[in-house]
Specification:
About 40% of the residues lie in helices and about 20% in strands. With about 140 residues, it is α+β, with helices and mostly antiparallel strands. Strand 4 and strand 5 form a beta hairpin. Helix 1 (about 60-70) crosses helix 2 (about 80-95), helix 3 (about 105-120) runs antiparallel to helix 4 and helix 3 runs parallel beside helix 5 (about 135-145). The structure holds zinc ion (ZN).
């Protein structure tokens, strides 16, 4: 990886596996200007997880999930940090589903609603109100959890 400041070559000076987020954390130092920065190696989910859609499956977009979670949490003070944590939790749970790598949109909504429900009731209600698939039988299923 090139240095973000001068474009010089860098070397890894420290590396750790982060089990919770399934990422590799690395500290890098530029061989030229000696700047230090951190990188995270993570699985590219859009190439390994798919969502059923009319026509052909669509790649799973972490940014879309994050945006929906952020909207649900919008009136909370730490909404960006919380949305990132909740998105990671949802992804972990999605990756444990037997149906992966091809998920149904309502599975993603149900897992997300369930995680939000355990975190903040107001955010959960806001999320459910935005997702038609959660109203009706699915909402009753989520509400019991
Ligand atoms: Zn540099």
């Amino acid at each position: 990886m090139k240095c973000i400041y001068c474009g010089g070559e860098t070397e890894v000076t420290n590396s750790r596996a982060q089990k919770r987020s399934n990422q590799i954390w690395r500290r890098r130092q530029c061989l030229h200007c000696k700047s230090i920065f951190t990188t995270h190696e993570a699985i590219e989910l859009s190439s390994s997880l798919f969502v059923e859609a009319k026509g052909s499956p669509k790649p799973f977009l972490t940014d879309l999930l994050f945006t929906e979670v952020l909207l649900a949490l919008q009136d909370r003070k730490n909404c960006y940090v919380e949305a990132r944590e909740i998105t990671s939790t949802v992804i972990r749970q999605l990756l444990s589903l037997p149906d992966k790598p091809l998920l149904k949109p309502h599975q993603i909504s149900e897992v997300t609603a369930n995680v939000l429900k355990h975190f903040n009731r107001r955010a959960w209600l806001r999320y459910v109100a935005e997702h038609d698939s959660l109203q009706g039988p699915a909402l009753q299923r989520v509400a019991r959890l």
